Structures are given as structure tokens and as C-alpha cells.
Protein 1
Amino acid sequence: MFPSWSAPLCALLMLAACQSRPDRINSGAAGDAPPEKPAADGPTVAESSQQLAGRFLPIVGGVWLNADYLDRVGRTRSPRRALADMPGGAHAPTALLLNPAERQADTLQFLLGIDNHEGMTATLLFRPGLGTTTLPVRISTNEPGMSHTLRYQLLGQDTLLVLNSYTRRGKLLRTNTYRKAAIPRGKAPELDYGTQWMLRQRLFAGRYRGVDSLARPYSVRFDATGQVSGLPGARTYAVQYDFTGPYLNLDYLTLNAASKQPRQLTYRFHGDTLRLYRVQEDTSTFELRPGALRYTLIRQR
């Protein structure tokens, strides 16, 4: 039982080609975010498509996660609750994957991830006219007449991507902001790797001390890279973040996901205390149930 992101990610990439459910870019109200002002920050000399691509791709290339979703993960300590609470619910646009290697002439096809499970393709257009930090985006939806833009914002050492959608008359309808995941230099952007890194960093990364159910002491370390030390028999861990399908009603970790015998532990946070429980499958309801408490760990500051 591991319906987590190795399977859904493959599905995402395939679904991008199939353009699954193209009407689902419907989460995220406009809020107070101002629309782009095409004339205000436009370059004095129009850049060519080649120049635009050369300037944008080093900035926008990579894996990006919805900032609202990440904030909710930090508050709830639960990827499942965070996703359910997103505006638009399970149909929230949660991730972007832009691979500069996919560029063709004046366009770049990229993946728009929906609800951490499905995906649809969008196209970034390297065309001047919207300003120095904004490019038009083409997305096939069931809302005729809509237009979309992708804008980057440099905030100190942080970078944000802002995906805006407009009505036929140019009114800002909704906006979604994204934060960039850390990808090792030279590694091609991968949606699973970037998403896992962001969630592990926010939820688990750090050193812990605690005991198991028999009061035996343990010193455990979780790394954002997915390595874990100090848990018997465990070398790696993955955070479940796709909750579409059976046996996906609980937050859980998978230890040694790539092995022949992966192991699941559901978890709960209370302040600096992390409790890990065994997982039981209820075959009558196709749901998971928390089992016996396995470890009680306290994060070390």
C-alpha cells in the first residue's frame, strides 16, 4: 500500500499530456493582489523572444508550490487538512513544474498541478508587452475569454511566482502565489522531489529525542532530503500528500518507500512533540486507522 507520490506523480506527468479536467483552475480568490500594469514597467526597448527566455528561465525554472497551501501546512501540521482547507477544496492549483529544457522557440509548456493528484498543461509565451517581470500564459479551461499571466517577484533572497487569471474585460478574477522548492544544482526539476523537500522541511526536518512504546530511548534525525537516522530499520522517509483514493484519509509517512517492504506510520504533532503510530487498514471502509503508539519524539531546539 503506497498510493503516494511516486504513483500520482507519474499520473501527473501523464495527465499533463491528457490535460485531465481542464476546468479546474478555480481556487484562489483575487483578494487584494493588484493586476499587472502593462505600460508602467515595460522596457524601453522591446526584447526578443530569445532575450525574454534567457532572462526568465533561470528565474522561473523549477518546482513551485502554492504559498497558501504551504502556509496552511505550517499552521495545521497536516498536508491532508491543508489541502482540504484550500480555497476551491480538492481542486486547488497546488504546484507548478517549469523545466527550461522543454522550451521550444518562443514557448515553454509546463505542468500545472491540481489537488496534488492531477495535472494539466499550460504554455508560457515569451512575448514582450506586459512588463519586465510578466509573461502571458495560455491555459485551456472551460471559461472562454479568460486570460492568464505569470509574474515573478524578487523579495530579497526569496522569489515568488504569481499566476493571475482575468475575465474577458480584463478584471482580475483570481491569483495564486507560489514558492520555489530547493533542487540540487544540475538536477532536472522533478515535481515529487520538490514537493517532498518543501513538506519535509516545514514538518519534520530536525533532531529529536524520545522513546518508543517500551520506553527505550531514541535519538532521531529527519533531513529535508528524505534521509532519516535513528529509527530502527529506516533509512528514508516520504510524506504523503496525495489524498485522492482509498486508504488516504490520514496523514502518514512511508519509511523506505523504494524498498520491497515499505512501512507506514501515521503522525500527530503537538508543539515540539511528534507522535508516530502504526497504521491499520480497514478493508470494509477502505480507510486507514491509527494503531498503537510507536514513538514519542521531542524536537531539539
Protein 2
Amino acid sequence: MRISVFGMCGLLLLAGCGGDDGSAADAEQSSVEGSSSSDTEVASGEGGAGCESVEGETAPEGQPADDILGVREGMSIEQTRQVLQCRNASYAIRTSDYKPSLPDGGQMSRVDLTADSGLDRVVVWLVGPSGEEQVMHVERTIEFTSGNELPIASIEQELENKYGEFDAAAYGHSGYIVRSRDGQRLGPNNTNYTVCRRHTFSSESPKPCFNVVSYDIQDSSDNAQLASKFTVTITNQARNWAMVEAAQGKKASEVEHAREKAEDQGLEL
């Protein structure tokens, strides 16, 4: 009988996880130009109480799944925090703020939210105009304690059940689902496949990509058929660039408003 990763790991709240290319490394490599950061500690959620009305988001009916734990592209930081706190009361949540440069000058806002229980970590990137940031990237890593590892084959089956069939990586236990800007599935032989499967943030130029779902599983040193941890990640590059454009539009609007105000009031010279 196949072991369900979602059934066996109810305490880890695996239901609703999503994909990575083994790319905690990719995530760390994404550049944030001209940025400064500050960490803010946020108390962990209480779970249960007050959570009855808190619901995560999923893709519209008929569309491919694109959420992890009910967190998906387009959500606000408050929505994200509430969903994660209600998913796992053990999460300690912190945020880091950055100010990436815009292509035409000025800055936008990026907030990295991390929810970590010690064995279960979720990392979310939100970008956009300051105070209006939206989710563009979600990554989740689950580690197993000795003796509680799960079969790699079971994890891969559960991931496929939710997200669909993955393209296998050239090595290891990894897979990708990559889509172009119009939502079509890209394959390894397509020109933009390699570019689009990277989990990166950019404020410099749009990519010809919609989103990428990927996963990476690390096998146990004691048994190659069991997983010691796995990571799943979803990055929506279309949302990334939409929020860059929103930040550019807000900057232009602020300049125009200042110009009109100056014309109305004039200057005493």
C-alpha cells in the first residue's frame, strides 16, 4: 500500500505543498540591487483560535495548482502571515525588508517572510510598491528526524498528484514544471526552459516566463530510498514583473502629482 506523505505527516501540515529545483541555493543567489535590509521578529501564531475565517488561496478551477499551504502569487503580506500562522502555531515568523532599484531610477519594495518551526520552513518573497507588496515566490522545506523518513517515491507521487507530471532533472531526485508567459508548458528542448526554471527575482527586465514549480529531495545517508528532507518551490515571474511595473507606475504618479502641486502653488523665489 502506498504511503501518503500528506496522510502520514499531518503534524507537519504537508497538505498543499508545492515545488523547487533543489534551489534553496537559487533562492540565495537572487540579487537585490541597491538594497538595505532590516529584520523584524514577529510572534508565532496561536493557531486554532480566530482561524476559522482564515482561508488560503488556490488556483481558479480548471487551472494548474500553484499554491503551497494555501499561499500563492498575488497575496498580501497580511494574508500570507495569517494563513501560515493558522496552518502551524509553531511557526516563528520574521520579515526582512529590501529596496531594489527600478530600471528607470527610484526604488520598489521587497519583503522576505520566513516561517520556521525547526523542521518545517516556508520562505515567501513579496514585491511591489511599498505597502502594496504581493507574493511572487513561495518555498517550503521539510526535514525528517531519524527513523521518521518517508519513501522518496511516495513524496514524488504526492507532488505529481497535486501539480502534475514533472520533467525529471538530469541528476538526483528533482523535477520541474515550467510555463511560458501565455501559460503553455515549456520542455527541456525549448530555448527559454533553462532561464524560466530559475527561481530568481529581478527588477531589471521581464522574463518570457509565467511560473515554475519544482522540487528537490535529499535521500537519507542510511537508506537511498528514503528522504531526509525535501524542498518544493513556486516562483511566478509574471507577477514579479507586474509588481515592478506597478512600482514604476506609482513613482510616475507621485512625480506627476508633485508637478501639478508645484504649478498650483508656485514657488517664492
Protein 3
Amino acid sequence: MYFDMNYKILDTQRITDYISTSSNEVSVENIILHSGADKLRVYPALFELEQSGWLEVVEREELGAPSVVRKKQMKTNDR
């Protein structure tokens, strides 16, 4: 039996799960080390999550890559 796994979706879910279970801010290094996602898919996934509004970048490296991120907090008056 052949299953076509979508590893991009699987790794994005691993990243969102890891960030969601973290207290607040998460270093990208820890995401790479502990989320279970393939390290080559972490930065593209973080970019897509930021563009979708799910994630916000707290700190960036000198060339613009995220170094610390957190789940975007919904404000109570946002509707």
C-alpha cells in the first residue's frame, strides 16, 4: 500500500504544536532542535506562518531571518 505523505504539512503542524505548547517566545534554534520538523523546512514554514498572521517574529538575525518567534496573540477587541 502506498501513502503519499505531505511532509511540508506534517512539519508545519509539528512547528505549530511546538510553539503552541511553549510558554511564550521560542527561539528558532529550539524549534529546529525539539519540534521534530525537518530543519530544512523550518524557515520556509515560519515565513508562511508569519504571512498568514498565525505567528509573529520577536527578533531577527542581521540578514532578516527570524531568531525568536511567538504565536500571535489575538486582542480582545479584534473582531
Protein 4
Amino acid sequence: MNLYLKIKKQWMILFLLCGVLFLNGCTLELPTPESLIAAPESNQELMQQKQMISEFLSKEERMIVPEINEIGTAYQYINLDEDDEKEIVVFYANKESNFVLGFMILDQREAGWQLLYKTTAYGTDIHYFSVQDLNLDGAPEFLLGVKTGYGAMKELYVYHLADSGLIDITSEDRIAYDQIVLAEPTDGQTMLVTARTDTTVLVGSSNITIYTYGNNMVYPVYNNTFDGYCSDMRFAKVNADTEGIYMAMRYNHYINMILLCETETGFTVAMEHPMPYDYEEMAGIELFGDINNDGILEVNSLWSPENNLSNRDYRDFVHVWLQWDGENGLTAISAILENRTDGYRFLIPVQWMDTLYYDFYTDGEIEWTEFYYENEERSFETVFSLAAVDQLVWQNMDDDVTDSIVVLGNHPTLNKVYIANIKTELFNEFQVNAEKLISCLQIEGGM
């Protein structure tokens, strides 16, 4: 009897829920083609998607993730025919043959998912992949970069999508590269920029080639060899009126920054600027960035302390962001002392940099950053010092010490108090006070 009542109660609840849905005008929706090809939102959808894809792989094949891949997955969604329904590009490698790999394209038709195209390339891994309309004709080109297995050398396969299928336009002449970047000018067609490094000589050199695409051919429009190993390349807007290609040419212990810009007669070197550090050895330090979000790419240079008595890491140094001045130099637009561990950034006024020095030192439990200048008597005089201290340390400091120190702010979760010891309120006609230093301080999560 109890079991009968329990079942009856469950049926009544279900009946009431159906009635609520009906009265509110709700309907049950079946999956549409658009929702079926959307990126998976749950682990279950992800598993179902992978299961569907695996049906197009042979037992010797497995999915792999390209090395340069912002998505970080073995497949991605693209729209080849502008029908608002995306296709899936899948990257694969043959488990039985270490040198066979490629990508395939799946499309959803009325009968279900179908294999549209499948490419075969030869290498140990997929390094790079991009889909671009290189000649602006409305048909995409597929760029597949693979590691050849011969040292660090890589080869680029370029495929054109025609009515008959994918055409390998580099089948007779692969493009070898170590670094690759796409140059996508605001006005004009996309170009390929590659760097080939020669490590057989002591100094080393890098061959820079710029390719354009047309008539089912990829052909060079610029070629030059520079001293140094090209460790990074970026195409971007480099000042308010100009786009260009930055190339970081690495030597022992420093980098030579070269800027290529296009003119009416072709590409030319617009600037060379030595950088004092070997950024390749600095984990976590970005060489390029748009630090002020103005759409212009800046270069990061380190301003080193005079004495690093606390043995602070390069990441704690002042980072000076430089922007091309339109001639043969770089202009500082921002100087940032960043301490991610203590949760703050201090923006040093750029005007102070020409006459200001700084050091790191430790006094008891407090790690200070001291800024000083050379006065009229040609002796060094401290202007102010910065530090981040624990809340308890600050509370236990002597009253006579805290009287000479101002609080600039505090961290809401790290229990840090940011303090400054102002020694000189005026140096080289620059005013220094608590209000000025507070305006320079940025704290993660607020004040």
C-alpha cells in the first residue's frame, strides 16, 4: 500500500509540472544543427564530441594539439562557407608512423557529420596552424607548420580551398622557418614573415623573408639576413600612423631590436635599438605588449637598480615600456615597478627617470625600494623609499618610526600595508608628497 501511494504521488507531481509548463507557454526544444556544432559546454558534451570525431580516425591515428594554439585543444571550429554553421578542424598524428600527421575538416550535413577534406603532412609534431584569406578573394588558405625532426627546423604547408578541394600549393617547395608571424595590415593583403636562424657560426644570423600569396603561389617580396638569432617577431601598429614588424635579434647577454616598415619602394629597416638583457633567459617577462591599451605595440626594457643588495629577481626591476618615435629611436611612455607577490604596481613618472636612481635593500623584516638622485653638491640624496609590509609588522613598528612614514594604501586580502618614507619633497623641480605617490600606486583588488 505504501509503495502504491508513493508511485501515485510521483505521478501527481509530474502531472503538475507538465501543467505549469503548458500554462506558461513553454515548450520542449529539440537540438538544432546550430546547437549541435557549438563548442561543448560540459564534460559530457566534450566526451560526446570527441567520440564523434574519433569515428573519423583510423585505429592508428590519434588527436594532437598544435604547439602554438590559443584554444589549447586538438580541434577547433571554423566557418568555411559563411553559412552560419561552423565546421570542425581536427589535428591528428599516426601512432604507427612517427612522421605522418595532418588535419581533417568535418562538416555537418542532413545525414550527420561527414569528412570533407583530409591532409597528410610529414613531421614529428604540429607547431602552427592558421586559417587566412591571404589574397582577399573570399576563399580561405590553411597554414600548417610542422616540426621536421631535424633540429629546430620547421616546414610550412599552405593549402588553398578551391571548388575541387584543398590544393597543396607548397607541395614542390616547402617554406622552412624557425619563427613565423602573419602580417595583417589594415589596408592590404596578409603576408607571411619567417625567420631562419643559422647557428653554425659563433655570432649567428637570421634570414628574414616576407612572402605574399597570389595565383596559387607563395613568393618572397623581401629577403635579408641580420646578425643574431631571431627569438621573437611581432607585426602590429608601432605608432599612431605606422604598422611594422618588430624582430628581437638575440646575442650573448643582449638583444638588438629591429623594426621593419613598408614604404612605397618596399620594406626597409626603420630602427635598430640594443636592449641590455637576454630576455630568452627571463621566465615570465614579456618583451612586447600594449601597456596603455592604445592599440600600439610597445617594447619592454628593464631599468636595473644601481645595487641589488636584496638579490631581487629581474621581474622586480622597473619595466620601462618603449614606443617607436617615428625616426630611429624609442621613447619611454611608462615605467612600472611591479611586485606581484605583494600585489601592487608603482608607476614612476616618466619625467623623473632621467635624474632618478633606485636600489633594493632589506632592513630587518622590511624590503625597501629606495629612489635617490644626485644633488647640486654631486652627492646622492634619497628622495623616497617604498615597501609593502604585513599588517602585524606595521602595527608593531615603533611610533617614532611611523611618524616619518606615510601609508599609501593597503591590500584587502593579502593583509599588506603599502608605505613610503619621504625624505625629500622637492628634487630637480619635481614635487614629491604623499598625494603624488598615492596617485602612482595601483593595488590589486582596490585600495
